[in-house]
Amino acid sequence: MEKKLFDILKERGYVKDLTHEQEIIDLVNGEPCVFYLGIDPTADSLHIGHFFALTMFRWLQDFGHKGIILIGGATALIGDPTGKSDMRKMLSKEEVAHNKAEVKELVKRFVRTDGDNPAIIVDNADWIMDQTYVDFMRDIGVHFNVNTMLQADCYKKRIANGGLTFLEMGYMLMQAFDFVHLNKEFGCRLQIGGSDQWGNILAGADLSRKIGFSEGQKIDPLFGFTCPLLVKADGEKMGKTESGTLWVSRDKTTPFEFFQAWMNSFDEDVERSLSFFTRWEISNIKELCKKDIREAKKMLAFEVTKLVHGEEEALKAKQTVEELFNGNGISSDMPSVELSKDKLDINILDLLVEVEIASSKSEAKRLVEQNGISINQEKINDVNKLITKDDFKDNNLIVQKGKKIFLKVELKD
Q: What is the pLDDT of residues 335-388, one digit of tens each?
């Protein structure tokens, strides 16, 4: 018997919060419905958290449901305060415009926007930016109770730090209005997203009901369906690496760095990640993880890199990793930086900071003292060591941090 979509999503770990459990099960398993996922262009790329939500979007799309990707050209100008201790950096309209263009192109790599059952991409600036402040507050703000809003998780951390601004409170109103607008324009009944968006999703469903009541109309309820946040076994968000955020843009995170980040997954996270980012049978995933967790990590790294960067880049990244760890620690495609010859006779600590292996001299000193640094496969334990021309072989020097981070330093005139 063929599995129904909701059962597939639940088995693979996508189900976190549901506004109306049975109704959503029937909706997801039934005839095609309209649903949406919102992404704020607060950066000019997508990170792995966005990509995870897009895999959920693709499951719904592949089962015939009609998907809408909402790019938050208006909401990005405020910034979602959810989970933030401090107010987000305010972006200029020009920055948001640039980010929107980049994010739209990246989204098209992961969801179908042409051919059979294409998704559509919309921008909430198209229906929010032309409204006057007074009109928006009279039409939308009148339905929000401040006391209720202040109880929402999305505002709690900002309140605890004593810094919630009126600007940030407006975010929930705008996202709630998005849901109402998409329902009226496209018949959208379902919003999906990460569990951190639960409060904003509830606000949209509630706003629709209140507007309908105020207008004397019976409105079909709107539904919210969230997936869990990607959190690693140590409690940190997945996608946070030693070198920063794990982006899907190769300009920000190279295919090798992306591949290597998945290779460095905690053993406990591999099965869940394979469930999210591949369509292998769950029984096969469990068997592989139980039999050979190292091989499972290799398969995870390859499959996710292939999804994001394509098979050719995934194969190159895999080859680079094998050359580094099974060979002599050198690969033609390994990460590299340039060092000017006029910086030679540089102290090892200064070199580590210069090539960004360490963020500060104190961190560099700690790494050296703890035997965490190798130069050309030889451990360095002298914090006063000078790096000279003699350390470079064919104008290349290989710096290794721990067991997993390699960097080729190329000497340039």
A: 778 888 877 788 888 888 888 888 888 888 888 888 888 887 788 888 888 888
Q: Set out the domains of the chain in order of their start, with CATH numbers.
A: 5-227 (3.40.50.620), 240-326 (1.10.240.10), 336-412 (3.10.290.10)
Catalytic (active site) residue 237: yes
Q: Is 88 a catalytic residue?
A: yes
Q: Each residue of 67-98: pLDDT tens digit?
A: 999 999 989 988 777 766 666 778 888 998 99
Among candidate residues 47, 65, 316, 318, the one labeled active-site is 47
Q: Is 84 a catalytic residue?
A: yes
DSSP string, 114-175: SSSS--EEEETHHHHTTS-HHHHHHHTGGG--HHHHHTSHHHHHHHHTT---HHHHHHHHHH
Q: Out of 4, 20, 58, 88, which one is annotated catalytic?
A: 88
